[in-house]
Design goal:
The protein has about 280 residues and is α/β, with parallel strands linked by helices. Helix content is about 40%, strand content about 25%. It is built from eleven helices and seven strands. A seven-stranded mixed beta sheet has the order 3-2-1-4-5-7-6, sandwiched between helices. α5 links the parallel β2 and β3. The longest helix has 18 residues. The radius of gyration is 19 Å and the shape is globular. The model has no long low-confidence stretch (mean pLDDT about 95). It binds S-adenosylmethionine (SAM).
């Protein structure tokens, strides 16, 4: 007799998005954002933004890419679903005398008109929305035909990819949700943006995180970086010590100085992709 198997339950993406929003609201991502400013400067430059363009920064956090774009003389809107990060973004832009608009919104349902931007940027942002297809669709919808899409996404085989694996080995993510690290691979981007692409160029880059010791890296990410902060909070005392030990080992393995210095340098590879739309 044939057995009937129950198909795996489809993940509830709306519920996952709500939970992820709480994760990114925890800790204080502003502290991490300050360490990756250069990646957004490079992304804005790679996108070859023209002064006068209308530019969207998706999942902008405290506005790294939005502010870099605004310094190219563009009119910028930044969108993120964490209001506290947007408040910081407004303060930063204001301190630099820049007129950038920041809106609360979900990358999977962008509060923008169709075809309304010359360029859409996302630095380590769009990659985290659970519905990859929907997010890519929204990015393309927001951009005008012939517009530019520029993305920075952590590579699965790099330091941050390894860090996510170390964390999920102790605190598994929601079942059935594709890994955000897929955005750091060219085949996945080709699948997501395929029909909309006239031209696409990807470059592997390195963002180096610097700390006085592996332990300082762990404490920094545990305190300020939402995903790590929430992972630690979800564990009991013994498991917290195990996760801290795993992350300390990870940092020692990746340390470019190989323990030779009173400091660690952690090279995190990411994919920088610039797409010209049809
Ligand atoms: C790693 S941070 C990057 C922030 C900023 N782009 C930067 O480079 O500093 C990820 C950001 O994506 C935002 N984010 C994640 N999923 C999102 C979603 N579905 N809609 C809007 N924002 C999202 C988080 O709130 C967070 O600010």
């Amino acid at each position: 007799m044939a057995t009937t198997q129950t198909p795996p339950a489809r993940p509830d993406l709306a519920d996952i998005t709500t939970r992820q929003q709480r994760v990114w609201s925890s800790g204080n991502f502003a502290m991490v954002a300050s360490r990756i400013v250069l990646t957004s400067e490079l992304l804005a430059d790679a996108a070859d933004l023209r002064a006068g363009w209308h530019v969207l920064d998706v999942a902008c956090g405290t506005g790294n890419a939005a502010i870099a774009a605004a310094w190219s003389g563009t009119r910028v809107v930044g969108i993120d679903y964490v209001p506290e990060l947007l408040a910081d973004a407004r303060t930063r832009a204001g301190a630099e005398g820049l007129d950038v608009e920041f809106r609360v919104g979900d990358a999977q349902d962008l509060p923008v008109d169709d075809d309304s931007f010359d360029a859409v940027l996302s630095a380590f942002g769009a990659m985290f929305a659970p519905d990859h297809e929907r997010t890519a669709h929204e990015i393309v919808r927001a951009a005008r035909p012939g517009g530019t899409v520029a993305l920075a996404s952590w590579r699965p085989d790099g330091f941050i990819g390894d860090m996510f694996r170390v964390i999920t080995a102790r605190v598994p993510g929601p079942p059935g949700v594709p890994s955000p690290l897929l955005w750091g691979t060219e085949p996945h981007l080709a699948d997501l943006f395929g029909g909309a692409i006239a031209d696409a160029r990807s470059t592997e880059r390195i963002c180096t995180f610097r700390f006085s010791a592996a332990e300082e890296f762990v404490e920094f990410f545990r305190r300020w970086y939402g995903p790590t902060h929430v992972a630690f909070e979800s564990l009991g005392p013994a498991e917290r010590r195990n996760l801290a030990a795993d992350l300390t080992d990870l940092a020692r393995r990746w340390d470019r100085y190989r323990g030779d210095q009173d400091a660690v340098a952690l090279p995190a590879t990411y994919l920088e992709t610039v797409i010209t739309l049809r």
